[in-house]
Amino acid sequence: MNRPTDPHALTQASTPVGTHAGYMPGFGNDFETEALPGALPQGMNSPQKCNYGLYGEQLSGTAFTANPPERTWCYRIRPSVKHSHRYEKIDLPYWKSAPNVDPDVISLGQYRWDAVPHSDQPLTWLTGMRTMTTAGDVNTQVGMASHIYLVTESMVDDYFFSADSELLVVPQEGRLRFATELGIIDLEPKEIAIIPRGLVYRVEVLEGPCRGFVCENYGQKFELPGRGPIGANCMANPRDFKAPVAAFEDREVPSTVTIKWCGQFHTTKIGHSPLDVVAWHGNYAPYKYDLRTYCPVGAILFDHPDPSIFTVLTAPSGVPGTANIDFVLFRERWMVMEDTFRPPWYHKNIMSELMGNIYGQYDAKPQGFVPGGMSLHNMMIPHGPDKEAFEKASNANLGPDKLDNTMSFMFETRFPQHLTAFAANEAPLQDDYIDCWTDLEKKFDGTPGKK
Binding site residues, as ranges? Predict the structure, then answer.
């Protein structure tokens, strides 16, 4: 909550009934919250005069006529036009956007990286972003990019927003604070955050150094997947997503706002903090979610289900059932299938799969896929268990077996993912990863009935 000795502390709403630790539960809810009593108008959105001399302003996350529209009404000390001045273009050389096809880089293949090591130089949320892959086109608002972040320093009187994308943040190490226009989100490993397109925020280090993964979504917003015959329960429950309560700063201090727009970065200089929303209501807001509350479902008799059964969030495309991005979680769970090869089977498919390891060991790759590491299997490129995993699963005693101490995830997209020069040349690429399938043996025996 508030830290009065901290000059950057935000004045935060008291915790309303039904919330905890400064958060309000529910995915896609229509929230209302105020940091000062009476700051939020009742019964209307745009009164002739707002209380406390505030300005009413709407932040829209969809077109006005979208169904349903996503928008939030903000009541702020200054309108956003006061947070925007003349722009100067800057370069953040490691943060790339699609299309980013490097003619000297081969993206076709199976790739795996060790954890990107921390740097000796101080890095903020902006300077510490390292793009690994891009897909689609930021200008037409389709596709995505995947990044690693390395953060050691807090942003001080520096702020950021992306006009291009919402960000899905997956910490792997360290703790961060996202001080946003709509409130504060504290984030640690085993949690994720969703930061909407257009929302201004500052990132502070609570416990460092910090490292994690980011999925930058150019397309439609992430939503909960349709559950079909699974029904109303399990997977990710809406009540476990937490939006922050209102918090604001009223500080007159020279500040810099950096904007990402069509893959380019610009800065503007202002004389105050832009985090000045005293009250807000609406359904366009940042969230955090504890991955430990995800309840996996699966096969309880035979066969291994498609990994889509583990989808936490999906960003739809124009093709039903084929996502712009699926965020898929592989966490601790019981395996009980009879007469079944239990790890993911060998496959190639239309989707490209980028995986990251938060902690522990992944069942299909028991060696080499380290915490903080990533792998990429692009569209229609075959992949599956290595020899060790295949032999173990083919000969295991198939009693109930708990996969424990494991949490990895997948950013899966309908678009091919192109490696950046950083991913190909600077990140710790495992050159021998492709060799994990070399020792797979020909086991064919044409004898009838032979297994």
Answer: 347, 353, 362, 383
